[in-house]
Structures are given as structure tokens and as C-alpha cells.
Amino acid sequence: IEHLARLIRSCGNARDLRQAQRLNCAIHGRGIDRRHGSYLSNLLVEMYGKCGSAADSFAVFQRARDRNLYSWNMMLQAFAVNGDLSSAKNLFDRMPQKDVVSWTAIMAALAANGRLNEASLLFDSLPCPNLVSRNVMLAAYAKAGHLESAWKAFNAMGERSVASWTSMIQPLAELGKVEVAQQIYDRTPMWNVITSTSMLAAYTQSGNFDMALEAFDSMPEINVVTCTVMISCYAACFQIEEALKVFDSMLERNVVTWTEMVHAYADLGHLEEAKLLFYQMPCWTLVPWNVMLLAYAMAGHLEDAKLMFETSPSRSVFSWTAMIQAYSCRGDFAQAEDILLCKIPMMDVVAANTMLATYTLAGCTDKAERLFETMPVRD
RNA sequence: AGGCCUACAAACCGU
Fold it and tell me: CA A43 → C1' B6, Å?
């Protein structure tokens, strides 16, 4: 049974939906999940959530014979991480009991969807906040760039964990304050591989590639994320050979690692290599599809872009925006605008701005103005 | 009865 549990967990961690479905069939088909209380069904609910399918999670949840607080919290989390806040709230309201984990999961989901105020209000109403719920709020402030509030929350904490310290690093780098991030990193009383990888990412994202290399060389412990960051670091300084060296030397790779390598090839203009690697991926998320789609779009390969769009398992606003670019690059403004105004099921400000920029750059001021007037969202 | 499995920090996509 522990063997099965391990299999389920590793499948969730690999984000491999196909494998998840196979496992679920094998387990449920033999009725194994019915014989072990809520343990296995809980793990299956979690697995599907991680693989991006809240619907499959819910199916398992509903057919489960025994449900405990863990089951409800895992289902809640499955909805939350997949961006289905309304289902999460619905479930939350129907929970027979709730604990601080349930509240914290909702808070984190609100914050992740840009609803910081609601998260903050919820936090203030928590009957008994703990270290994790405080960390969630802290990280939410930090990521939103509300450094004052973040520091206030940080300083108010009676007890801190590695996560509390690590949460302060990344946002500083994003605001161009790498030195401050480094000062915190140097002063941290506790750190682990995540902390040092955050610092590495901070250097990479701020363009301090030499610092990144130095940091990497002196890291006492690395993992798959660390190496993936190094691939993006080498890609950012146009060292495709070095990026590939890291990729080839990795003992463990996940879907992000693969995506990053495909992205590196695509970004540096090696479309054929990108394509080869893309089709070799052991499993996909939507991101690599969009990476390939955009690469083709920007290279003017409209037919290839269309093919990616049509064959991808699903489409997000990223995919649609890439198609706007694909048509724009070919000068087919009518098709591009048709996508924006008629076809996108989820238009946002970036998609609209993309079209606007196309018109502006092409000197079609009249069309740009007309579009601007009718844009449902502006920034 | 208790334990196990759930919430927090690092890497990938569009103007």
C-alpha cells in the first residue's frame, strides 16, 4: 500500500495526467481504494489536482466512501491551485468542519489571483493563525511588491521559518533591489536549498549572470529546480551550449526543465532543435505548447503556429495572444483583430494592448484610436 | 486512542 502511495505521489509531482489516469484506473478498477479508508482516495484527489485536473479530483472525491478533513482540504486545494476559486469557495461553505489549513488554502488562492485585499481581510478574521498562515500573508505582500506590509508582517512574527526568510528574497530582486536581497540572504539565520536557489534566480532575473554563476558554484546543495534556473541563466546570456550541458548532466528532469530547454532553443533562434526536444518531452503542460506556438508566430511561420494552436490540448489567453502575434507578423491585421474581438473567450488587457501596439507600429493611427475607444479593458 | 496523507518560500508562456 505504501508502494502504491509512493507511485501516486510521484505521479502528481511529475504532473503527468496520462499516467495519473492509468494509475487511477488500475487502483479503482480493482477496488483497492475502497479498502483503505480515505488514505488512497485522498492521495488520488491530490494527484489529479497537481496534474491540473480538478474535475478528475472531484470525481474521485465524490465516489470516495470515507471522507475526512484531509479529503476536504485536498479537494479544496485542487480547486484552488487550478484557479477555480468559485468551486473552492462553494466547497469551503459546504465543509462539515474546517481548520486553519482550509482557511489558509483559501487565503493563498485569493492572493494568487490578485485578490490581496480579500486575503488580508480573511487573515484578520482567522480564529487561530499559525506560522504557515502568517507566511502566506507575508509572501502575498512581498510578491505584490508591498514591501512595507511585508516587513511589517515579518517583524510582527514571533516565530519565523525558512519560508518566512525566503519569501523576502525574490520580490526584492524583481524590484531591482538585488543588493537588498543579498543582504537578507547573508543575514538569514536559516536557509536551505530553496533559499539559495531563490538567490540564484534573483541574480538571473536581474541580469547579474556572473553573480549567478558564482553563487551556483558555491552552493552546498542543488536540486532539479536549481539546475533548471541555471539553464535559463545560460539561455539569458546566449550560452546555448552551456545550457545544454546542464540539461544533459541532470539526473532528474521535470516538465519545467524540459520546457526551459525548449524555450532556450526557441529564444535563441534554434527552432528545429526546439521542435525536436518538444516532441521528445515525456509529458506536457500547456506552457511548452505556448512556447512553441509563440516561437513560430514570431518567426513568421504562420502554418506551424496554427498547427500548434489547433493540436494543443487546451488554449489559454497566452495561446490566443500568440495567434494575434502570428497574424500581425504576417500583416494580416484583420484576422488578428477578429481573434481579439470575436474569438478570444478570455480577452485581457495584454491581448488588447498587443493589437494596439501592432496598429501603432504599423502607423495605422486611425485603427489604433478606434480600437482604443472600444477596448473593454485598458491600463 | 494515536500516527500517516492536506495549507506557506525557489525555476517555464503573451503587450
Answer: 9
